[in-house]
Design a protein that fits this description.
Layout (H helix, E strand, L loop, with lengths): L6 H4 L2 H16 L4 E7 L6 H11 L10 E7 L4 E6 L1 H4 L6 H14 L3 H19 L15 E3 L2
Parallel strand pairs: 1-2, 1-4
Antiparallel strand pairs: 2-3
Helix pairs in contact: 2-6, 5-6
Length: 150
């Protein structure tokens, strides 16, 4: 099935519910923040663009610097996982690569919702290990999927 390039139409409603559930579950067990951003285009370096989106969404302002962005570009057919310095200082150097590899396996079968939800669950487990939910924890950012043309 060909997916639309329009970021808001890229995922089915069922896939969005699956992802929302994964984010909700993960963030109930950690003080970390997980954000999915789906954009249409990325000109230049995806790493640079993900960094700009990360900052724009406020992920760099979390109390423990433990925000994680999954940045998916529909037209370019590329994606990146961008973690803040708090989580990056805790996880093994190849941690994001392992998640990315599993996502690619799902994506190659057209299972974008499953691939994203599983990635969010795996990220949530690591965030919980290093940044468990505290009594005074509050959700610092919206859990909604974000969309953009950039």
């Amino acid at each position: 099935m060909e997916r639309p390039a329009d970021p808001k139409k890229f995922l089915s409603e069922e896939e969005k519910r699956l992802i929302d559930g994964a984010i909700d579950k993960a963030e109930k067990e950690t003080s970390g923040e997980i954000k999915l951003f789906i954009g249409r285009f990325c000109w230049g370096s995806i790493e640079d663009k993900a960094g700009r989106v990360f900052r724009k969404l406020g992920l760099s302002k979390t109390k423990e610097r433990n925000g994680v962005l999954i940045y998916l570009v529909t037209a370019n057919r590329e994606f990146l996982i961008y973690g803040d310095e708090g989580i990056n200082s805790k996880v093994p150097a190849d941690f994001w690569d392992g998640i990315k590899d599993r996502m690619e396996e799902n994506f190659s079968r057209g299972d974008f919702g499953k691939g994203l939800a599983e990635a969010i669950e795996t990220i949530g487990v690591q965030l919980k290990a290093y940044f468990p939910c505290r009594k005074d924890d509050r959700n610092e950012l919206s859990d909604d999927i974000e969309y953009g043309e950039e």
